[in-house]
């Protein structure tokens, strides 16, 4: 999957990638693998190679090669056997990035204990520029000894297990992805796409990564420090239908009228009853929830766009830059300018 350009062809290319390298990305699957853990990052890197021709070459590998069945019942055809990749760990055809996908505990145990994935990973990691895991693939990195004395993350449901099994790693429980040196780990399932975009940004620049995010129709590009589980999703899962509908309305109308009266009308309740119901079920008053949602959206715009602060304020529903600045500093403890500079 993907094709590297010749040196001559790449010398004529003027896109953001100036390294002149074709990066060989190997995604490791196994029986019972989570399909999105493979397909998500692969799609991101494939689109990067369309944006910057020859930037990446993608291989899907598995312990024994051949067809691999995912947990969703889909089949990954003609995967490469890990043993056949040993010969590509040489200067003429190096593996640049190795990404281990995740899966259920039993599937991971088979991959680690019976199929030798951890042993191969420990050897290959000595020569690859970058190693990574998606979701519970972190347990393969752990078994290979690659998480010792490093920060890491995994699916939020598996953080306790990773911490108990690997005392040498500092588990960052609520992170989309973590980069510690040349080792990257991502949280649950779709966070693998966010991590892949982070890698692409590091390799090819932010503009390329943002273009790919738009091609993938992502609502927002999450940085590594963001939460794996969205606040609105958490609240919606435990809220009654009227409050759940209002939360969805808020998220899609951040630059509109989100006063208590307007939201009560959406819920078809009186303002007083609505405020009580929302505060009880969401754990915060409507106005405070609206402000936090607007600030979070403003933060994503600061990371993803070059818009002026005035445009960010308008698009996220604030009446002025000063109003947004005050809310932003109260939420994140920093100014918008500093936040954008450090993003």
UniProtKB/TrEMBL annotation:
Q: Could you tell me which CDD domains the record lists for this protein?
A: GATase1_AraC_1
Q: Which UniProt keywords apply?
A: Transcription, Transcription regulation
Keyword Transcription applies? yes
* Positions of the HTH araC/xylS-type domain: 244-342
Q: Name one Pfam family in it.
A: DJ-1_PfpI
Q: Which SMART domains match?
A: HTH_ARAC
This entry's Gene Ontology molecular function terms read: DNA-binding transcription factor activity; sequence-specific DNA binding
The protein depicted here goes by the name HTH-type transcriptional regulator CdhR
């Amino acid at each position: 999957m993907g094709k590297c350009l010749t040196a001559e062809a790449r010398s004529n290319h003027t896109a953001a990638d100036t390294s002149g390298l074709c990066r060989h990305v190997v995604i490791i699957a196994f029986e019972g693998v989570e399909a999105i853990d493979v397909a998500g990052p692969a799609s991101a890197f494939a689109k990067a190679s369309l944006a910057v021709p020859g930037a990446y070459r993608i291989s899907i590998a598995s312990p024994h090669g051949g067809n691999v069945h995912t947990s969703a019942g889909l089949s990954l055809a003609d995967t490469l056997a890990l043993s056949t990749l040993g010969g590509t760990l040489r200067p003429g055809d190096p593996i640049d990035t190795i990404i281990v996908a995740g899966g259920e505990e039993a599937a991971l145990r088979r991959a680690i204990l019976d199929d030798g994935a951890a042993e191969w990973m420990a050897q290959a990691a000595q020569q690859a520029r970058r190693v990574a895991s998606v979701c519970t693939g972190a347990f393969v990195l752990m078994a290979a000894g690659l998480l010792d004395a490093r920060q890491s993350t995994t699916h939020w449901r598996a953080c306790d297990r990773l911490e108990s099994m690997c005392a040498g790693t500092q588990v960052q429980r609520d992170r989309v992805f973590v980069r510690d040196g040349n080792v990257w780990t991502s949280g649950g399932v779709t966070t693998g796409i966010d991590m892949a975009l982070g890698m692409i940004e590091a390799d090819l620049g932010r503009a390329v990564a943002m273009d790919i995010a738009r091609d993938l129709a992502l609502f927002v590009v999450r940085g590594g420090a963001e939460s794996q589980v969205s606040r609105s999703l958490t609240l919606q899962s435990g809220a009654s239908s009227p409050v759940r509908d209002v939360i969805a309305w808020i998220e899609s109308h951040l630059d509109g009228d989100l006063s208590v009266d307007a939201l009560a009308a959406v819920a078809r309740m009186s303002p007083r009853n609505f405020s009580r119901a929302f505060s009880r079920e969401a754990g915060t008053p409507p106005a405070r929830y609206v402000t936090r949602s607007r600030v979070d959206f403003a933060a994503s715009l600061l990371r993803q766009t070059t818009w002026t602060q005035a445009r960010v304020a308008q698009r996220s529903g604030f009446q002025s830059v000063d109003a947004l600045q005050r809310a932003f500093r109260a939420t994140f403890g920093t100014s918008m300018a500093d936040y954008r500079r450090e993003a």
